[in-house]
Amino acid sequence: VQLQASGGGLVQAGGSLRLSCAASKRTFSNNGVGWFRQAPGKERDFVAGINWRGGSTTYTDSVKGRFTITRDNAKNTVYLQMNSLKPEDTAVYYCAAARSSWGGDEARMYHYWGQGTLVTVSS
Question: Which residues of the chain have pLDDT under 70?
Answer without folding.
Answer: none
